[in-house]
Structure formats: C-alpha cells, structure tokens
Amino acid sequence: MKEDVRMIKAKEIDMLHGSLWDKMIIFALPLALTVFLQQMYNTIDTAIVGQFISSHAMAAVGTNVPVVGLCVNLFFGVSLGANVMIARYIGSGEEKKARATVHSSFMLAAGAGITLAVIGELGINFIMNILDVPEEVYDLAKTYLSIYLLGMPMLALYNLESAIFRSRGDTETPLIALSIASIVNGVLDLMATSVLGWGIAGVALATVTAQSLSAVILFVALKRTSGITGISIHEMRWDSGRMSEVVKVGLPAALQAMVFSFSNVIIQSAINSLGADVMAASSAAFTIEINIYCIINAFSQTTTTFVSQNYGAGNLPRCRRATWISFAIGNTAILIASVAVYILGDDLLSLFDNNPEVVRLGMIRIFYVVCFEMLNGVMDILSGAMRGYGYSLPPALLALIGICGVRLAWVWIIFPAHRAFDTLMICYPVSWLCASVMIAAAYRFYSKNVKVIRVMR
C-alpha cells in the first residue's frame, strides 16, 4: 500500500513553483495519448468493421460518432468542473473542500451516466430519424448505438476519475489504465468479428467492456491513494455547496462541447443524404482527424489545470504565463501533426477502405478540416484558460454563436443550393474562424479584469 502511494506521488507535478514549459509538456503528453487512446476505441471499431464486416457496417459506426460525442461531452463537462475546483482547492490549500468535491462528483457522474443511458435507449428511434440514417445501414447503426449506450455510466466514471488524477498533476495513471483497456478492446473486437461472428454487436460490446475495465482500474487506484484525492466509500455523500461550484464551471463547458457535437449531428445528417460512399469516406477521415484533436484537447485541459491551481494560489502572472506557453507549444504541435496527416492522407484512408472513390472523398474532408485545425486550437486553449479562472459561460455562449450558429446556417442555407461534399466541409474552417476571433477577444477582456480570489483557510 505505501509503495503504491509513493509511486502515485512520484507522478504528480508541482504546478505552483519552478519552470512551466517543461512541466506543461510532461503533463500534456500523457494527456494527449490518453485522449488518443479514447479515440482509438472508435478508430479500432471503424477499421475492424470496415475490414472484417462491410463498408455499410463502417458507415453505421461512423454515423453514430456525433451522437456518442454528444454523450461524452456531457461527461467531459462534469469532469472538467470537478477538475477545475479540485485543482483550485489544492492550490489554495483547502483540503476539506477538495475531498468533499471528489466524493460528491462521483455521485454526480454516476447519476449523469445512468440518466443518459436510459434517455438514449428510450429515444434511439428518434435519434436514428434525426440522423436521417439510410435504410441500408439503419439496423446496423441502431444495434451499435443501443449496445454502446449501456456503457455510459462507466464512461462517466472513467472521465471523472481521470479528472481527479489530473487535478493533482498526474496524467500518467489514467494513460496506463486506458492503455490496458485499449489492448483489451482490440483483442475483443477481433474475437467478436473473426472468431465468434457476432458482427457489429460484438464490436460494440467489446468497446463497452473495455471502457468499464478502465473505470474499474482507476477506481481501485483512487481507493489506494491517501491524501486529498483518495476516495473512501464512507465519505460518498452529496455536498450541495461543492456541487454548485462544479456545475457552475462544468455545465457551460459541457454545453460548449455539446454545441460541437450537436452541430456535427446536423452535418452528419447532411452527409448521410449524399450516399453511402460519402458516409464511409467521412467516417474514415473523421477517425483520422479526431486524433489531431487529441493534441488540442490535451493542451486545453493542461491550460485549465495549471491556471486553476495557480489561480487558487493567487498567482495571476503565472496563470497568464502558463496560458501563452500552452498556446505556443500546443499550436506548434497541431501544425506539425496537420501537415503530416495531409501528406499521408491517401495511405491513412486506405487503411479503412481502399475503394478509390472513398479515398478521394475522404481527402476532401481532410483538406478542409485538418488543414485548419490551428483555428480550433486557438479557440480551445483560450477557452481552457478562461475556465481555469472560473469563467466557463462566456466561451460556451460564444461557441454557440460561432460554431453552432454558423454551421446550422451553412447546412440549412448554403448547402441546399450547392449539394456537394466540399461545400459542406467548408463550414468547419468558417465556423472555427468566427468562434476563435470572438473567444480571443473575450479572453483578452477577462484576463485583464480577473481578480485574485480570497481564500478562507
């Protein structure tokens, strides 16, 4: 037990003292790999169903990606709210509030996961109709989503547990848990399709099993942890005061993330109207491009956590310095990854489907999305900084206007007049540009006017 505690302590990063750039890289790298492995669940599912089942099965998995993202982003908000508040209490030395937030957040996450699973199962036919899923992939898409929804409670708990580790500077432990789960997912996927012949249902079941395993691993690790973030079943109780603060930060963050997913659901519906080849191409390209978002997400969360702890400690100059260091390093990494993906695009797409038409269409999406990912990085990293200060609502509202508003107008006004895949994809860089300009202006205003918080110790 003592050895486990010492190993966990050794992985924690001191965010309040010393140099920042090296610590932020050390913090962000495992986090990017963790987000990458989370995305690998979908990547593995898409690749295996494309190779071992059919293009229609791959399209069925792809058409569910925006819906799954919508669910996951709700959990992201809950976990991010907990991350911000726990990190702030650690920075300010308020141990009792930190522990109360940890234990109450478990109840919130579990409740959100169960609620979302029930609502999703009851409304699955409505979801399929909203997506305008073609008849040839309807049953496959419905089967995959129905099974995937069963894993929502465990997915919610994994996200929260990761946020707890992250709040104290440990991004390695969640990476280890997810690495184990990813290996299990790949093995079970292959067994389900090539050995047992369970088809797309087996792939979905394998994913749910692997996600549950990662949540259990982190739960056991937290049980063995002493100190502020260690958990105890006896301390599991609802603290309204702590949860109101978590929700105040987390709910707008969830809404901001869900805005992306909701707009993507609408875009997916338009993609589906262009036929199975476009659906398969978009699914394959999305699976590739989302891995670049791992870098964006990692540096956004790094910014949030470093700003949160230093804001709790009352060190505003260090908060601002952490933001610009993360901004510079993160966007440099995004640029390098984007160039690499564009150059290797044909070969990467062929891993999912070697149909020349699917590859050609996939490159259209890669051009319009991947080549402009830095705009997304600007928006997300500055949003992360504002959330670290506790300003979670402004970036959410601006994303609602700049992302959701622009994309909906594009799909409903411009796309019907020019029904082509490239016309549809242009909405991504246009919406990112609008949102990033507004959020940059908001960050400039709030960072200049933020006040040092006073802590009652």
Unreliable stretches (pLDDT < 50, length at least 5) are 1-10
User: What share of residues are in beta strands?
Assistant: under 5%
Quaternary: single chain
Mean pLDDT: 82
Can you summarize the main beta sheet?
none
- Radius of gyration, whole Å: 21 Å
Summed up, the helix count is 19
Specify the helix fraction band: over 70%
**Number of E-type strands:** 0
Structural class determined from secondary elements: mainly alpha
- Element string (H = helix, E = strand): HHHHHHHHHHHHHHHHHHH
Structural commentary:
There is one protein chain. Helix content is 84%, strand content 0%. The protein has one domain. With 457 residues, it is mainly alpha-helical. Helix 5 runs antiparallel to helix 8 and helix 11 packs parallel to helix 17. The longest helix has 37 residues. The radius of gyration is 21 Å and the shape is globular.
Features:
globular, 457 residues, mainly alpha
List the helices and strands and how they pair.
Blueprint: H1 2-11, H2 21-52, H3 55-63, H4 65-92, H5 95-122, H6 124-130, H7 135-149, H8 152-167, H9 172-195, H10 199-223, H11 240-272, H12 276-312, H13 316-343, H14 345-350, H15 356-370, H16 373-389, H17 393-417, H18 421-425, H19 427-449
Helix pairs in contact: 2-3, 2-9, 2-10, 2-12, 3-7, 3-12, 4-5, 4-8, 4-11, 4-12, 5-8, 5-11, 7-10, 8-10, 9-10, 11-17, 12-13, 12-15, 12-16, 13-15, 13-16, 16-19, 17-19
